[in-house]
Please model this.
Amino acid sequence: MKVSVIVPAAGKSKRFGGEEKKIFAKIAGQCVFLRTLELFINREDVCQVILVVGKDDIDTIKTNYGDTLNKMNVEMVIGGATRTESVRNALVKVNDQADFVCVHDAVRPCVSQLWIDKVFEAADKYGSAILAHPIHETVKKVGKDNEIIQTVRRDDLWQAQTPQVFRKEILMRAYQNASGSADDDAALVEAIGEKVIIVPGDPRNIKITTREDLELAKAVIDTLPKPGIENSTSPIEEISDKIEDKFH
Model:
């Protein structure tokens, strides 16, 4: 299994607030996007890492991080107006050595190598796999004026995460058939009738969208399970379980 990893980092950071984009925010002194890239650059099953950056950010990244990216052997591609366009631009650069493509958000630095191992193994076995986490809280569908329209059954609902990993020809075909944008790559693969397997993830795999997300990421990044340590229970889940036990 040889994997080309695409890391979209061309978002506008509208919900993050302030002048600094979220990819440049720091956790323990290091930019979020660099922490994310480090998840993949030393893996033996990864043959290529492509960072997709916004046109407005390319000069800043080259000036401030160009040497670091060169040492990491990370390639850069200019993104598009949407996430779908950005990934499509990167797919053109995927090398012939890769037989799988992994797409992982640049603003998800809190991922354990154990979770990456599991989603890679599932993709190798089934062709397509993503990390996801079951939704435990009550979900409401809301209409105008924030009026509740419906309480949605959550039994079969999962919150999609990344990495999302696909056999290369499947993802290429999905993008060739895509007529518009999609919320994630799995949606495009589903649209061509291919099966996508869920690999249970972890609530610590946070997508940094707001300042509050950044603070949470700082708090959990050192708690991630490490290879060789069997107990990989999330402290967030442990706290939730204790609260539930207390009131039941």
Notes: Residues 230-236, 238-248 have pLDDT under 50 and may be disordered.
